[in-house]
Write a structure and sequence with these properties.
single chain, 298 residues, TIM Barrel
Length: 298
């Protein structure tokens, strides 16, 4: 499922009053199906999962699964409490998810033993494949390579590493070299280092970059062509990858996938200056391309 794959991480669309917009959600998933992505990932950092109620999470999972059809849906089930993460994972399993994505969580006294125990408990309680997300930027948890290798080796349901610890390319290379049980490595961070990560041995992407067809073209290409594609679209990746999700949601809106670019408070929606700069970068990188259509990658 995760070999040579592109799994876009989807935002959660909200209306102007910050209520969840399931109509937009279904339309966005349908567009992803039309782009022939490998699968989708929901309720991650881009999905503002930490600002959703349990009822909203359930409605979103149900909506995504119905719209996705046979397309695999990975559900983020991270939580600071192990039991809560287990319950979220069981809910995803009961509703029909293809896999779960889980991060470690920061403790007052850092302990890799606690991280291992957290994942052991989740793996023991849920039969779904686990995407192990290593993203210190959002979790504040910095893991040794040795611990990641141990988790992959000891927990058979860990089916993929979502590698987002920086510097990412050398970490990808180290994992590829040292894994006894080779599982796919998908990278994130908005594909900011994507060209380097593929050269280091990454298998694809699981990230929120709003143009997954670019990432699909990179994964399908040989090394030289993948690098050329990466260099062409890198300014857009850099601009989109600024802190927060506001710019990315605005691009999803401009692509006709969601109705509003609203971000749930206390985070801000896109600022006027950023919106004006987005006009400029889209024009410079994409020219007259219709954002609502699939990009033709040359």
């Amino acid at each position: 499922m995760f070999e040579r794959a592109v799994f876009p991480i989807l935002p959660t669309p909200f209306r102007g009053d910050e209520s969840v917009d399931l109509e937009s959600y279904a339309r966005m998933v349908d567009r992803m199906v039309g782009l022939d992505v490998s699968g989708i990932t929901i309720l991650g950092v881009l999905g503002e999962a930490n600002r959703l109620t349990d009822r909203e999470r359930t409605l979103i999972i149900e909506c995504a699964l119905e719209a996705a059809g046979r397309l695999p849906v990975v559900v983020g089930t991270s939580h600071s409490g192990t039991q809560a993460a287990i319950e979220l994972s069981k809910t995803a399993e009961d509703l029909g998810a293809a896999a779960i994505m889980v991060t470690p969580h920061q403790e007052a006294v850092p302990s890799e033993a606690k991280v291992l125990a957290h994942f052991e408990a989740i793996a023991g309680a849920c039969d779904l494949p686990i995407v192990f997300q290593d993203h210190p930027g959002s979790t504040g948890v910095h893991l040794s390579i040795e611990l990641v290798l141990r988790i992959v080796d000891e927990l058979e349901t860990v089916a993929c590493i979502k590698q987002e610890a920086v510097p990412s390319p050398p970490r990808v290379a180290a994992l590829v070299e040292r894994m006894d049980r080779r599982v796919p490595i998908l990278t994130g961070l908005g594909a900011l280092y994507g060209g380097f990560e593929l050269l280091a041995g990454a298998d694809g992407f699981m990230t929120g970059f709003a143009f997954p067809e670019v990432l699909q073209a990179m994964v399908a290409a040989d090394a030289d062509l993948a690098w050329s594609i990466y260099c062409t679209y890198l300014p857009l990746m850099v601009f989109e990858n600024q802190p927060g999700v506001a710019i990315r949601k605005e691009i999803f809106r401009r692509r006709g996938m969601i109705e509003h670019a609203t971000v749930r408070r206390p985070a801000p929606s896109i600022a006027p200056f950023a919106n004006a700069q987005l006009d400029q970068v889209l024009d410079r990188v994409l020219g007259a391309a219709d954002l609502r259509e699939r990009l033709e990658i040359n």
